[in-house]
Amino acid sequence: MCKEVCVKYRTKAVVPLCLLLFALPAFAQTDPGLRGGTPSAGGPLSSVASDMPPTILAFFNDGRTRFTNIDSVSNSIVGEPGFGLGPRYNSRSCGRCHAQPAVGGTSPATNPQVADATADGATNTVPSFIVSNQAVKEARFVYFTDASGNPMFGSPNGGVEPLYTIAGRTDATSCTASVISQPDFASAILHNNIIFRIPTPVFGAGLIENIDDTDLLTGGSNPYGISREFNRNGNDGTISRFGWKAQNKSLEIFAGEAYNVEMGVSNELFTQERPTPEEDRATGLPSQCRTNGTPEDHTNFNQTAIATGSDTVQFAMFMRLLAPPAQVTGTGMALISVINGEAAFGDVGCTACHRTQMVTGKPVTGPPRITASLENVTARLFSDLAIHHMGTGLADNVQQGNASGDQFRTAPLWGLGQRIWFLHDGRTNNLLTAIQAHSSTNSEANAVIANFNLLSVSDKQDILNFLRSL
Amino acid sequence: MSLLLILWMSVVTVVPKNVILVKGAIPGASDSTTPVPEKGTVSAGRYRNAYFGLSYPIPAGWREQPAGPPPSDSGVYVLAQFAVSDGERLKAHVLITAEDLFFSAVGATGAKDVLASIRHDLPARYEFDHGPEDVTIAGRQFHRLAYTAPRTGLRWRIFSTDARCHALTFTFTGVDTEALDAGERSLSAISLASAAPACVNDYASNDNIIEKTDPLLGTHRFNTIPVRVLIAANGRVKHIHLLSAFPEQSQAIIATLRNWRFKPYRVDGKAVPIETGIVFGVPRMVAKTTRAG
Hints:
The complex is a heterodimer.
Chain A: H1 2-8, H2 14-22, H3 46-49, H4 56-68, E1 71-72, E2 82-83, E3 88-89, H5 94-97, H6 113-116, E4 138-141, E5 143-145, E6 151-156, E7 164-165, H7 185-190, E8 194-197, H8 205-209, H9 213-217, H10 251-262, H11 277-281, H12 311-321, H13 332-347, E9 358-359, E10 378-379, E11 387-389, E12 407-409, H14 431-436, H15 446-454, H16 457-469
Parallel strand pairs in A: 1-2
Antiparallel strand pairs in A: 3-7, 4-8, 5-6, 9-10, 11-12
Chain B: H1 3-11, E1 26-29, E2 41-43, E3 46-49, E4 54-57, E5 63-64, E6 76-85, E7 90-100, H2 111-121, E8 127-137, E9 140-149, E10 154-163, E11 166-174, H3 177-186, E12 191-192, E13 198-199, E14 209-211, E15 224-231, E16 237-245, H4 247-257, E17 261-262, E18 265-267, E19 270-272, E20 274-281
Parallel strand pairs in B: 13-20
Antiparallel strand pairs in B: 1-16, 2-3, 3-4, 4-12, 5-6, 6-7, 7-11, 8-9, 9-10, 10-11, 14-17, 15-16, 15-20, 18-19
C-alpha cells in the first residue's frame, strides 16, 4: 500500500517517511485527536467576503453578531442585548453552544450550560448529565409519563425538555420557582426515559440548503445492503435536510424552531411561548412567566435596512452564508496518509452514505439568486443527507417526521477534524469509538464496519488521519 | 437483594436499553404464517429462508453477525451476515441480501442487472477480476462479479441469482484468500426451491383489476410503500406483504387490498396463482446513477 503511494508521490523527503510508515502497524490505530491550529471554519463564503452582491457581508456580520448575542428576558441587562429568553431554555445564545471551533460550530470543550443555570440570578439546579468538561446537551424524554414518572409506552414523546427556567432571574421577578419548575430529570434518568442530542455544526449550511432534491436522489447500487431514504417535509413533500434526523426543511425553519425550543424565544415561525404538555393540558404557561408579548422576535418595522430583519431571519442568513470548513491535509507523510485514507474510506463503503460531494443548484437563467458561492459549486460535505437505520446501539427512540427511532441523517463530515464530540449524543470524543458505534443490531452500516475491520492497522490509521484532516 | 429494592423494582417501569421501540416504516403482512423474505433463521449451521426455499451452509468457523435493517422502501433486504476472524482481525465476511426487482431503485430487472449496476457505480480505482459473468452453482445459474481495491487489498466476490423476482445476492468480502475460497465453496452446497408462484411485474394495472378501492392513508407522509401481493388462481388476494409502511398505512392497505379482485392470470389457458408488486404512496423513483466518490 505505502509502496504505491510512495511511487505516486515520490520525493526525496517522502521516501524515508514512507519507510517510517511501514513501522506503524506494530501499534494499534489511534484517533489523532482534535486537530489544533487555526479554526478552519467560521468565515463567510468567498463571494460574501467580497461583498457580492453589495451589502451581503453586512448581513453576514449582523447575523453573526445576533447569533452570539446573549438573550435576557426583557432586554434590561447590560451586555445581554438579545430579548425574549425563556420562560424555559437550554442556553442563552446560539453561539454559546455552536462554538467549536468557531461561531457556527458544535459543542465547545467547556459546557456553557453549567453557567447558564444560575446566570443573572436564576435558581436552577444543574442536572447530573450537564457536566463542565462534557458536551452541550439537549434532553428529550422518550415517553410521556404517569404521575409516578413511569413511561407510558403507548405515548411516545420525543419533545425537547429545556433544562432551565427563568425563575429567580433579576429580569423576571414575577416568575418564581413556585410557579414554574424544571423537568424531573432525576426521575427520567431513573426510568431510562431520557436521550440526548448535541448541537449540529452549521458551517456550509447554505450549500446543503441549495442542493436540489433531484441530485440527492441520484445514486446507484452498492454491495453493502445500504438503501437511501429521505425525511420529507409534511407540507410539500420535498426533502428535508437539517437536524440530526433531517427533520427541518430550511435554515429558517431550523433557526425558528431552535430559537423557540432551545432559548424559549417565540418568533414569526414558532409564534407561541412553549408550555410543557402538562401545562398545556391545565391552564397553560403560568401568567407570571409570560413576561413579553408574542412573538418576541419579529420583523422590526421601526428600524431600517439590515436591522429590519428578525433575529430568526438573520440567524438563517448567517448560517446560509457561512463557508464550509476547509480541509487541512498537511504535507509529506501526513499528506500521503490522508490521500490513502480517503481512498480506504471509499474502499470500505463509507461513501455509500457519507457521499463525498454534490453540486449545488444554479439559477435557470440570470444572475445568482443570493450570492455566487452558493450556486453551482461542489460541496464536499461527505453526506447523502438521507436517513439511515443505525441500529439498537445508536437508537434514541425519537421519531421526527418519517425518521424512526433509529434513523439518523448521515452526518456531514466536513469539519470533523476540529470537532470534540461525536455522534448525536456526544457520547465519545474518540473517532475510532464513533466509527465502531455504527455497527449494532439492525444497523445499515454493519457490512461497512465489517469492511473497516478487515483493514490493516495502517489503513485504519490512514482513515482516521483523513477524517481528522476534514 | 433488599426488600426496598425489590419493592422499587416492582413499581418502577424502565425503558429498556438497546431496543428500537419507536419504529417508523416497517414490514407488515396480512398473516403471520405465509413466508416473507425478512424472516430467515439460523440453525444447525445453516441459514434458512422459507420464502426463497433457501438453505445455505454457513462455512465452518464463520459466525453470525448483528442483524441488518428492516427492508427498505426500494425493496432491499439485508437477510444475514456471517464473518470469520483469526481471533484478532476479521478475515472475511458474507452479506446475504435480496433486492425486490419490482421496486428496484436503479431499475434493475434481474440479478445480472444488479451486478452490472454495482460495477458501473464503482470508482475507477478498483481492479475487476471477473464479470458479471454467468456461472453455475449447485445446478443453478448465478452471476459473478469479482474485484479488488488495490490500495487496501480488500477483495469482493459477489454471486447473485434470480429468485422470485428478487436478486438474491451473496457478497463475500475479505483480505484472506483461503477464507474467501471457503466462502465461495460453501455456495456449492446451497439449495434453493424452484416451486413458487410465477412473479409478474406490473400485473396490478387497471386492465387486470376487476374490483378495487383505494386505501385512505391518513397522514400525508410522502413515503413510498412497496407491497407484494399473492393472487390466487381465482383472482382473489391471498397474501399481502408490505415491505415498508407506517402501521396505520399497513392497516389501511391490508383492509383495502383484501377486497381487490384481479382477472385470473393464465398460463397455457390455465389460471395460476401469481405474485406481483404494487406501490402505494409516492411512486418509486428510479435514480440516475453516478460513480461513487
